[in-house]
Amino acid sequence: MSAGKERLELTASVEEGPYYKAGSPERRSIASPGTPGRKLVLEGRVLDTEGNPVARAWLDFWHADGNGQYDNEGYNLRGHQYTDENGYYHLETVRPKEYLFRAAHVHAKVRASESSPVLTTQLFFPGEARNVTDPIFEEKTLMNVAEMQDSQKATFDFVVET
Ligand SMILES: [Fe+2]
Fold it and tell me: Is the pTM of the predicted complex or chain greater than 0.85?
């Protein structure tokens, strides 16, 4: 290991929950027109534990809409994509709302390659009242969220096994 290069901690896994559906379409923009919720852009990289970006990593996202509802009939707010050659992903969607006892969150599955283990986790928004009371909440998977004029811009880097 080269000097100054610390091994990165793997992204914490968080339970899958009841609403995952395999077979999501490949796309970076996952909200159909008219979906309730403020615009949310989420982006970042997929890294290995050495901090190297992982190209062509698979990411599958799913989450509730701005009313706290999942689409369990179709694939609205569901989609998978692959990182670019520099390990970046980019998701355009709407901001999910909390539901039942759950704090607002974005579900994700991430895999460095077809022979790698799948990370299943949930990403959370800082400063949400429900973060304190949701037993599934994980502070290690808080996103960085910036307020933009007409949207929220969130960033998160995943660290996965290769
Ligand atoms: Fe959920």
Answer: yes
